[in-house]
Amino acid sequence: MNIKEKTLSLIDDLKSTCQTYGMGNDGNEYKIITQVFLYKFLNDKFGYEIKKISKELSGADQWDVAYTNMSENERLDLFDALSPDIPRLYPEHLLTTLWNQSAKGDFDLIFDSAMTDIADKNIDIFSTQTTLNTKIPLFEKLTIYVTDEAQRAPFARALIDKLVNFSFEEAFAEHYDFFAAIFEYLIKDYNTAGGGKYAEYYTPHAIATIMARLLVGDNADLHNIECYDPSAGTGTLLMALGHQIGEDRCTIFAQDISQRSNKMLKLNLILNGLVSSLDHAIQGDTLVAPYHKSDDGQSLRQFDFVVSNPPFKMDFSDTREKIAAQPTRFWGGVPKVPKKDVTKMAIYTLFIQHVINSLKRNGKGAIVVPTGFITAKSGVESNVLQHIVKEHIVYGCISMPSNVFANTGTNVSVLFFDNSRTADKVVMIDASKLGEEYQDGNNKKRRLRDFEIDKIVDTFLNKKEVEDFSVAKSYDEIIAKNYSLAAGQYFDIKIEYVDITPEEFQAKLDDFEKEYRALTAEGAELDKQILENLRRLKIE
Fold it and tell me: Of all helices (H) and strands (E), which one includes residue 246?
């Protein structure tokens, strides 16, 4: 097997172990899978990096044994030579050390202690934080999620068993595309919250790629770039953006209310070589308490690029008044609390406003919205839509295929913003007919293929008008069309005229009449059968 197949197999093995010990589909399973996977990754990364520094270790048959036998001063010298984005592991943290102790009866305590000690010793760099500046450590105790205490040590032992015969070293030569696919596979079972909950659903890799390529361009030479996602989720949009710019040329800033998302985002940042951005990954409510502020500590910090795939509709009635008390931030208004269904509050409209507020003067942004927004006629939706058109902020809109998102059937579009407001036209693309259908469990979904992604990007960047696919219209034309950003509303209506003789016309009418009679006869016969069956049931 190649390294990708081996890595996917490791993930399957870890999930199987959780299943065996009653943790399958448990609410805490994702913590175990992501943490154990990350522990193995960092263990191997640490060994890989210190072998590059030390000839003694690189020449040893077993680097971990040689490292364990070093003096404390020798290990500290290695730490001094290591890059800050590599964790500092001590002998008691290594996988081989845990393996050698796995027969002990209290191995669950040994295992958990090693995890939390790694987190404590690396907390300055390998931690995220909340809006209240509480540090969230890299690892936590895991065996406590096994209800039966007698099964905790065997569970920890089984996890270690899955790790010892696998190595990540081959993967360290791989880059973004490899780790993006691995990450997507790793978390695919843990993003099932649907479109109504807070930022838990995963953005398809294809859409993230399109957004990044259109915002950054394919040949951009950028440096010291700051990227931000106020509803970061697991970080897919930020990773694509960082890769397009260059991981060493940008800093990632993120915020999300979800604890689950924060753990997955942390993993994603580490896998993609963005450890230095961990300190900017914040857990907390962006709308109520945005963490990233300017130097004065009052106004919002502004960024070169801002991306977002926010929750579309959800109940935020508990915090609505706090949000509404910030009219400068939410210039388009705040949705009212519906009388019948509070979960229908259009929270995404607040994120649109926040994204625009967070752009530098020449900053660019992109946000995923329900397609209904792009033709909104009333309410906050209409206020925001009219504002981004009148102010020339929006410069593109792409309507995506249905069922392209994993957990919501809502049709989605992507809006593109340019705060320099220099565009003369808005590019609108109807990509709803693109993609191939595939089966994912019981669900039918669609995915965009590479050549379709290229078609979208080329059409957008070159402002091409392609029949029944794309248009480029001025802001005045859009205003005249009731502010609609739906490409289809600008397509020419085509009527096909065919010259036929009166006899041919009559023949077509006769055919239609025959088809109609056949259909109505079948319907009548079906009605008779249903009535007869109902009578029989009544008699019986």
Answer: none
How much is the pTM? 0.87
**Phi/psi at 225 (5° precision):** -90, 140
Task: Give Cβ neighbours of residue 18 (< 8 Å, ≥ 6 apart).
Answer: 24, 26, 29, 32, 33
CA 75/CA 67 separation, integer angstroms: 8
Indicate the SS3 state at residue 145.
helix
- Span of 344-348, 431-435, 496-500, 501-505 with lowest mean pLDDT: 496-500
Please report, for the chain, the start and end positions of each structural domain, with discontinuous segments joined by +. Answer: 3-174, 186-490, 499-540
Q: Are 155 and 147 in contact (CB under 8 A)?
A: no
Average pLDDT over residues 463-474: 96
DSSP string, 278-327: GGGEEES-TTTS---B-TTSSSBP-EEEEEE---SS---TTTHHHHHT-T
Give the CATH class of 186-490: alpha beta
- By CB atoms closer than 10 A (0-12, 13-18, 19+), residue 308 is buried
Strands 425-430 and 394-399: parallel
Measured distance CA(277)–CA(235) in Å, rounded:
12
Alpha carbon separation from 310 to 131, 379, 402, 418 (Å, rounded): 19, 19, 18, 19
CB 258, CB 27: distance < 8 Å: no
Q: How far apart are CA 308 and CA 264, in angstroms?
A: 16
CB 365, CB 356: distance < 8 Å: yes
Distance (Å, whole) CA 278 – CA 253: 8
Q: Which residues of 76-109 are buried (b: 16+ CB within 10 A; e: fewer)?
A: eebeeebeebbbbbbeebbbbbbeebbeeeebbe
Q: Which amino acid is at 528?
A: K
Q: Which of 261, 314, 326, 258 is nearest to 288 (CA)?
A: 326
Backbone angles phi, psi at 282, to 5 degrees: -110, 140
Tokens matching residue 289: 């308490």
Residue 47: half-sphere exposure toward Cβ, Cα within 13 Å:
24
Residue 528 clears pLDDT 90, i.e. is over it? no
Residue 246, phi-psi category: left (phi > 0), alpha (psi -120 to 50), beta (remainder) = left
Query: In this predicted model, what pLDDT tens digit does every residue of 83-127 receive, in sequence order?
Result: 999 999 999 999 999 999 999 999 999 999 999 999 999 999 999
Structure tokens at 382: 């209409």
Burial 55-74 (b: 16+ CB within 10 A, else e): eebeeeeebbebbbebeeee
Tell me the C-alpha distance between 372 and 112, whole Å: 48
For the chain, what is the mean pLDDT?
90
CATH number for the segment(s) 3-174: 1.20.1260
User: What sign has the CA pseudo-torsion 356, 267, 15, 19?
Assistant: negative
Length of the chain (residues): 540
